[in-house]
Every structure is written in C-alpha cells, then in structure tokens.
Give the backbone structure.
Amino acid sequence: MSPKPSQLASLVLRVVAARHLDQNIAFAITDEASDVLKSAGGQLASFALSAGLRVKTINAVGPYLRQAASDLLSMFVGGPIVEEIAKMIEGAAHTLKAIATEMDNHAAGCGCELVNVTSLVEQRALRNYEDTGAVSGEAPPIRFETEIIEDAQGNLEPFKVTGSADITMSPRTVRLTLKEGDLTAQDLCHLAYVLHHELFCHAFQTIGAVSQRNAPPQCYWTEGWMDRLAFVKAVQWAEQNNTPHAWLPFTGPDATGAMTIFHEFRYKNPKGLKFSDAKNRRAARQAFHALVEALIENGMARCRDHAEHLVFRFSLLANAHPNADLATLRRICLHFQNNLLSQARKTQTGAVALACVEFLRHRDLNVLETDLARDPYAPPMAQAGLQ
Amino acid sequence: MTNRDDHLTVGFFRAGAIDDGELNRLLVGAWSDAIADPADGKEIASILALAKENLQTIPPPLEAKVRSGGITGAEIALTFATPFAVAYAKELGCETGQIAGKATMKLVRKIWDKVLSRRVRSAEAEALGEERSSEEE
C-alpha cells in the first residue's frame, strides 16, 4: 500500500532528520551545541508527528516541507550557533526545500524516490551486473514501493526497516518497509544494506528467463551466498568517502558497524528458519568466502582484491543467468559448500576454483555443474568418461 | 508476465519454516487425505456442489507461491490452482474461464479454512506464518 500524503511528509522529515541532525553524526561539538542540534531534530520530529493533521493531499506535502525548512532556519535568528551545527541545520533545510521542489514537479513520487538512495543503489547494482556481461540487452525495469507500517506484531524487530522483491511481474518490484516513527542515522545504514540486498540478490535474478520464481528464505544461494556479496558491496559503498554519493549520514566504521549488526542478525537469529536451513545459509556465506581463498591459494588470482573481483563476477553472472532456476543455483552452491568447506577435501580446492574461472569464459551452467560434481579423487580416465 | 495474479489469490501469509516446494507437497497430501476422509470429503463435495465420487479426478484447488522474497523473510500467496480450475470446469460442464471468478475463490477459501489448513499445519506446525490482513495490502 502506498503511503498516504501525511505519511510521505513524515517519512521525508524523519529521513532528513536522521541524515542531517542525528546526534551521532556530530563529533566535534560541545554539550551546548549538542542541545541546539537536539532542538533542531525535535523540531523536525514534531513536524513529522503533526503531518497527520496538517497534510491531507499530495499537493500539501511540498509547502509543508518548505515550512519545516523555514522554521529550522529561523533558529539562527536567536543568536550565534556553532559553525558545524549551523551547517548541519542548513543542510537539512536545503534538502527539505529541494525535496519540496521535487514534490511540486512529480507529485506522485514515493518517499524512497525522494530521498534518492534507491536510484543510487539501483545504478550501482545495474553497473555491476552490466560490467560482468550478465545484462546484455535492456535491463529489466524496476519499480520501487515504500510501505510504512505500525509493526504491532514486531516482525521488523529489532530493526525499523526491511525490504522485499517480486520478480514474477514486470516491472520487477522492490518494496521498502519502514516502521512508523523516528529514524536514526543507523537506521539509514540498515536501509542502505537492505537496498543492496534486494537489488544485488533478487532484482536482477534470472534475467531473460521464460518464467521467474521469487526466492524463498530457505534458498541459501540467494540468502547466503548472494547476500554475502550484497553485504560486501554495501560495506564498500559505506567505506567510500562520500563520493560519488553523499546519501549516508556517516561513512567508515560507524556505517559498516551498523550494516554488520543487521547482516549478522540474519545468520544468528534468522526468524522462522529451521536449524538446517539456517545452517545452510551460513554455509553458503562461508563458501563464498572460501572460494576467494581457494582462488588465492591455487594461484588463480593475483591478490585478494582480484580474487574477490572474480568471485563477484562469477556470482553476478550465475545469479542473472537466464537458465539459472533456483534449484540449479542451490545445487551449484551446495557443490561449493561440500567441496570448499570440507576439511577432507582441503587439498582439492584447485578444481573448484578452476571451475569458477572457466565459467567466466564459457558461461554455461551445465558445464559448471558437471565440473563441480566431478570427483577430484577419481582417476583421470574415469573423469574423462573413458572407463 | 505483466500483472501480479492477486485476483486469483485466496490468502497472503508470512513465510513459515518450509519453502514453497515443500508447502505444495503438503497441500497435495492434505487434499488427498481430505477427499478420502468420509466427513471432509462430503464437506468438500457439498462446497463444490459435486458428487463425492467425482472428487477423485480433481487436483488440489490451491498452490503456494512466494509472492515476494526479502532480507528478513518472504510472503507466501495461496493461489487458485489452474489444474483444479480445468478439472472443476469439466465436472460442471462449463468453460474454465467461467469458473475462475470471485464465487469459486470464496469456495476454495472455505475449503482451505475447513479442511486443508489444519491438515497442512498438523503435518508441519510452522508451514505458514501469520496471515496478512487485507488492510495491509
């Protein structure tokens, strides 16, 4: 369900407050300055709360955001404010005005589009898929939806955001779900990881196939192997020093730490999964990491970055492959798990690493599966089918 | 592949502890068990306005699909099964398109509530999570 105009206004105000005015993003300030920041954040929170009464139509959102921006700037009238805080408040006001203008021009836009992050991550995912050659023709169109819920049943807990994707329809849909209420800078980092997950794991899966199926939570390829890729990509994004993006309220350890908490939660407390499914999810994540190691150990990558790059390419190609139904991807993942995580086969990882590198050349999932299923202990004649 | 077949869905649920493939196997088992049961078979026959003996040729009325997959779970849709529609229409002597409407969906939902849901859940207690209310849609 699309957000109501009042929910949209509240969402924008809360995201802007979390991006620009969260106490945790202002380090070099005194307690006094911190109070000013708190007061500015409180002002936006109050506007967000009142939106239910004061914003009845979509056309009222823009003027309401402008009024919030103007009230924020009026804080400067009372006296001098620490420069860093002034910049933060000005940043929030400027963003609100820009979004208000955007709203005036495209009144039907949804909250997530307004805050720009979805298109940033979508472009990032698309570029990654295109660079591997996984998307050769036209990329599948993706539509974003935002949903705001009370979450009375606590399905989002302990977080305030989640996401889902439906690739069985066109355009493919990515839905962000946010809990009604104030947001923090940490929540926005969770949101960035959620978007990376939905776009890298789900949105570009099996492009060009006759029919698509959405991955269930038990799909360890999608939710373990590909999630690891999405997480690494999200962390890399958060580690970049604000260019080319400036969306996250902070970068570096604070941002990656917040993402790590969410990522780990999916493996330590996966809601609703049986023990065996949770274990398979962890094994798939572990196998992703082990493949990087195998490429290095067997001399098939120049360095760790190169090995990681090869595993990224391999994963994106396999995930988007038109013949990659979920059962095939799970079988491939299971081969990696069995071959790379077994202590008994520790010395045989070369064949697995080679199968991965070869796949980048031939791009045939059947050949890949045959290569991975080959018993490395069998004599060469048997392997060639000559016995 | 253009529109989500929501109009053919009898209920949306949070995903449970099993995937859609396993859930569909449970649905097939629950259906076979229900039509073989004297009381439930009679109930189903009455809901569908068919003779109880004719139920043997009818496949399960529902199938499970992952409606959306995501970072903290998935949503399962129980949808009207096409093989059921074809077989049921044949029994009634009409076109498949004629029966794939709201009225039949209500009958199928009734069958789910009265005889299938408890069988699926007794085979696997966490087969499905809680149902999403229509207000959430």
Q: What stands out?
A: Residues 55 and 74 of chain A are 22 Å apart (CA to CA). Chain A has a mean pLDDT of 89. The interface with chain B takes residues 1, 149, 153, 155-156, 159, 162-166, 168-170, 173, 175, 193-194, 197-198, 202, 211-219, 222, 227, 266, 271-274, 277 of chain A (CB under 8 Å). Chain A has 15 helices and three strands.
